[in-house]
Design goal:
Elements (H helix, E strand, L loop, with lengths): L9 H4 L5 H9 L2 E5 L3 H13 L3 E6 L16 H6 L3 H12 L4 E6 L7 H4 L5 E4 L4 H14 L3 E7 L2 E7 L7 H4 L12 H4 L3 H19 L10 E5 L4 E5 L34 E3 L5 E4 L2 E3 L6 E3 L7 H8 L4 E4 L4 E5 L2 E5 L5 E4 L4 H11 L3
Parallel strand pairs: 1-2, 1-4, 2-3, 4-5
Antiparallel strand pairs: 5-6, 6-7, 7-8, 9-10, 10-16, 11-12, 13-14, 14-15, 15-16
Helix pairs in contact: 3-10
Length: 362
């Protein structure tokens, strides 16, 4: 393959650290973006424009008006059409670059499906909104030797770091356990400005391009902290937090002891408070006869037509093939084919479970 200066990647190819060989490597690469919110939408756009040959977008959520302030792939028409984020992002990005494969997957990521969802990935970009799923992602990537790029932002602050199994510390080298509930700020309590998500996601996408083009020596080896409001950038040397100069922690539960407690389902929560809104996600559960662990009900699909007949006398109902919305009093339930639901109007998991049991059954 020979590129000329008139093609879409010409200016990128002129950059010496990429060149024609790097562009070929990008074309043959597979990147997964976990979460299509503020971080994920920017990363997805940049990697699509850079020519990564295959991109999978995974997100459980739907689009709301307050997303438009910072989630750059979406517009008001997407809200009118009732599209899930992954599908709306897929359609927008296919219009940007029709020469690559872009797949949107509407799914909650949990220990029963993450290895299948990430199978074959060359890199994973973190666009998640909670640490429990990040610990699960860390387990899966360390076990399967997949590089991933952590990212998080709140208010005007953002963080990012690269996790390359066996070459850098993993997430649990730096953060040994989940932060206690209620101790961290959220979009609801601290807000967020869109520009910090754009900055952090741009760094994530750049680091992904370095990894995919074989520029492993050029990747960032520190935890980057960025306060866009006050103009402060800080590189936190991970070697100060762990034993060894940028090497995995020798007693790390995950990357040294190979204890994958999140991936094995020994540490799981099936209600999740949603970042950025007054809402809770509920995952329907069934008993695993071989274990005391409870598993998502992944084999049964909800019949929206049948459910709508039951719910219409009680409240406002609308649905398409991707999801159903049911409004009752001050609550709204968004129900997906696998029985998963996002309930807005409360951040109390107990209230959310009660509403789910009342209108859906557990």
């Amino acid at each position: 393959m020979t590129y000329n200066l008139s093609n879409r990647y010409s200016r990128q190819i002129l950059f010496n650290s990429i060149g024609e060989e790097g562009q070929k490597l990008l074309k043959n690469s597979f990147a997964i973006i976990l979460g299509c919110g503020a971080l994920g939408s920017v990363s997805a756009s940049l990697l699509t424009r850079a020519g990564v040959g295959r991109i999978k977008l995974i997100d459980r959520d739907f689009i709301e008006e307050n997303n438009l302030q910072r989630q750059i792939l979406f517009d008001e028409e997407d809200i009118k059409n009732g599209l899930p984020k992954a599908i709306a992002a897929q359609e927008k990005l296919r219009q940007v670059n029709s020469s690559i494969i872009i797949e949107g997957v509407v799914s909650d990521v949990n220990y029963t499906n993450i290895e299948k969802l990430l199978d074959g990935a060359d890199v994973v970009i973190d666009g998640l909104d909670n640490f429990e799923t990040r610990f699960l992602l860390n387990d899966c990537c360390v076990k399967n030797n997949i590089p991933w790029i952590y990212g998080a932002c709140i208010g005007s602050m953002g963080l990012t770091m690269n996790i390359v199994p066996s070459k850098t510390p993993c997430l649990r080298c730096v953060l040994e356990s989940l932060p206690p509930s209620g101790t961290l700020p959220t979009c609801d309590t601290a807000g967020i400005i869109g520009s910090i998500a754009t900055v952090i996601a741009s760094i994530q996408a750049t680091e992904a391009i370095k990894l995919l083009t074989g520029n492993i020596d050029a990747i960032n080896k520190d935890l980057i902290s960025f306060d866009i409001w006050n103009g402060r950038i800080q590189k936190i040397h991970i070697s100060n937090a762990v034993v060894g100069e940028g090497l995995p922690r020798p007693d790390c539960l995950t990357c040294k002891q190979r204890n994958y407690e999140f991936l094995e389902g020994r540490t799981s929560t099936w209600t999740t408070t949603i970042c950025g809104r007054n809402g809770v996600q509920i995952i329907p559960l069934v008993r695993n006869p071989k274990s005391e662990i409870r598993n998502p009900k992944s084999e049964q699909e909800v019949c929206f037509e049948h459910l709508a007949q039951k719910l219409r006398p009680l409240g406002k109902v609308g649905f398409n093939k991707f999801m159903m919305k049911f409004k009752i009093n001050s609550y709204e339930m968004t129900i997906f084919p696998d029985g998963r639901a996002i309930i807005t109007g409360t951040n109390d998991p107990g209230v959310a479970k009660g509403l789910y049991a009342k209108y859906m059954g557990m």
